[in-house]
Write the C-alpha cells for this entry.
Amino acid sequence: MQELALLMGPGCIDDREAEFVGLVKRAKAGDSVAFEAILVRFERRVLLTALRLLSGDVEDAKDAAQQVFLRLHRSLHQLDESRHFTSWLYRITVNVCRDMLRIRARRSFVPLEDVPEPAAAAGETAESGLRRNEQMRMIYAALATLPERERAALVMRDLEGMATSDVARTLGSTEVTVRSQISNARVKIKKYVDRQQRRRI
C-alpha cells in the first residue's frame, strides 16, 4: 500500500515524546499557554487523521478535531506521563471518529475542492495533478467501504506510519488481530480500486 500512503501525504505524528513532557506537565497544571502550544502542534495532524477515518468528510473531520481537543482538555489531568502522548491522542481521535460514524448518517461525498490536498510535487503538471486528485477521491471512497476497525488499523499503519504494536495498543487489540485487519483492508481496497478502474475502461 505504498502508493496509497504516497497519495494521502505524510503521516505519523512526530513521536519525540521527550519534547512534550514539560509541556504536558504545565498543561495538566492548568497552564492555558502550554495547552495552546499542544493544540497548535497537533491540530493539523488530528484533522488529517480524522479526515481519513471519516472517509474524506471535511465537515465531520473538523467537528471531530474540535471534539478531540475538548476531550483532551477535559481528561488531560488523567494522563499518565509515562504513557506515549501521541498514542493517547490517537486513541482519543479514533474513539471520537468511531462515535461520529455510529451517530451520524453518512452524507454524500464532499466536493473535491473542499478536501485538503497534499502539496503538488515539484514539476507536477495540471493533468497529473487532476489524476492525483481523482486517485485520492477513489481512495477516500474505498476507505468508506471498510468496517470501522479495519479502516482505523489501515489508516494508522499505512497512512500514519505507526508501528503495528502502536496500532494494537491504540485500538486495544493484539498485533495478530491488527495484522489480519490490515491484510483484509488492503485486499478490499485493491478490489474496490480494480472494480472502479474496470468501469472506466
